[in-house]
Design goal:
This protein has about 350 residues and is mainly alpha-helical. It folds into three domains: about 45 residues; about 80 residues, Orthogonal Bundle (DNA polymerase, domain 1), CATH 1.10.150; about 150 residues, Intergrase catalytic core (hpI Integrase, Chain A). Helix content is about 55%, strand content about 10%. The protein has a three-stranded antiparallel beta sheet, covered by helices on one side. The longest helix is centred in the middle third of the chain and has 20 residues.
């Protein structure tokens, strides 16, 4: 490490992690000496003491930086949700530097928010905070996250309401054409309402029988195979298409009102449009589909979301096994082990004879 002068200008020259650095300082030798000394101390702290420097930033300022990242890298829905999460987080952590936030502070936040919110809402805030702090490590604001060891609040089981095949048939039978088309599409693809209504014809591959969903909740492309029902529906719609949208405004007109009126007419209670997605997944599970396949079709990032349907698979497996009655005839009491062995000897003797 050294300082040197060239044409009255002072420079510093040093090596860090195998790389050589030369920097122009200015006309003051004293400033160059102090600058080099400061760099020597910082290198020593990192290399010999294991101490690293971080950029100090207030939580509210970092929040603005994170939201700029979220707007570019997350879906519109996730970004909008983050705005709400961060608004609440700022009220609590405003004025604190990121490096000053301790696990106890986060626990206090949990306790305070839990007074007025359900566990699921508090957990959404904590999930946002966790991602913010992980990004802060990548961006040089933190060396480690204070979220380590912080547990989310225990949530009640997620809502799982779905239609039986008989209920679905009754509902479709009473819906007007537009609502019937969209509900049928939801039942056979598992797409969310917004995903369905945002479809354009370039998302539809009739040749390969695929629906490509670009605008998803997770901001990741999802590809859904068409069954015969969906293929015929889209083929017919393509013959009369008038715009780039798959479902025209006249098809989408009064969807909510017609859907709710149909439920009322069929006396189907406690059911929402999103539950058509649950219906799609539930019947796939009951038909024997693999949960990993269903995770891919639904676009769940975490298999835990898909596992909510696993009990349906177990019920139907139990029902299938329960039908196996090899040793018991109808209206006959089960034999004891001794009786069964005796019957085997008689049958075996008859075969030999």
């Amino acid at each position: 490490m050294r300082i040197y002068q060239r044409r009255k200008v002072w420079y510093i020259d040093y090596i860090f992690q195998g790389k050589r650095f030369r920097k122009r300082i200015g006309y003051s030798k004293k400033v160059a000496e102090l600058t080099l000394k400061d760099i020597e101390v910082k290198i020593a702290r990192k290399e010999h003491l294991g101490i690293q420097e971080t950029n100090k930033i207030l939580f509210e300022n970092y929040s603005e930086e994170y939201l700029k990242y979220a707007k570019i890298n997350k879906s519109e829905k996730s970004y909008t949700l983050n705005i709400t999460n961060i608004k609440a987080l700022n009220l609590f952590f405003k004025g604190k530097y990121l490096t000053d936030i301790k696990p106890q502070d986060i626990e206090s936040y949990k306790e305070e928010r839990r007074k007025n919110l359900k566990p699921a809402s508090v957990n959404r805030d904590l999930a946002c905070l966790r991602h913010m702090l992980n990004k802060a490590i990548q961006w040089g604001y933190l060396l480690s996250t204070p979220m380590k060891g912080i547990k989310l609040l225990k949530e009640p089981p997620g809502r799982l309401r779905f239609l039986s095949k008989e209920e679905a048939a009754r509902l479709l039978d009473v819906l007007p054409r537009g609502a019937k088309i969209i509900v049928t599409f939801a039942l056979n693809t598992g797409l969310r309402r917004s995903e369905i209504l945002n479809l354009v014809w370039r998302d539809i591959d009739l040749k390969n029988k695929l629906v490509v969903v670009e605008k998803t909740k997770t901001n990741e492309r999802r590809i859904i195979p068409m069954n015969d029902i969906i293929y015929k529906m889209l083929f017919d719609l393509s013959a009369t298409k008038k715009s780039d949208k798959v479902f025209s405004d006249d098809i989408k007109a009064n969807l909510r009102r017609n859907f709710e009126a149909g439920l009322k007419k069929c006396q189907i209670i406690d059911f929402r449009f999103h539950d058509l997605r649950h219906t799609f997944a539930s019947h796939l599970v009951m038909s024997g589909a693999n949960l990993k396949v269903i995770q891919q079709l639904l676009g769940h990032k975490d298999i835990k979301m898909t596992m909510r349907y696993s009990h349906l698979s177990q019920e139907h497996l139990q029902e299938a096994v329960g039908k196996l009655n090899y040793l018991k005839q109808e209206n006959q009491e089960p034999q004891t082990l001794k009786e069964t062995k005796g019957q085997y000897k008689i049958n075996h003797a008859m075969v030999r004879g």
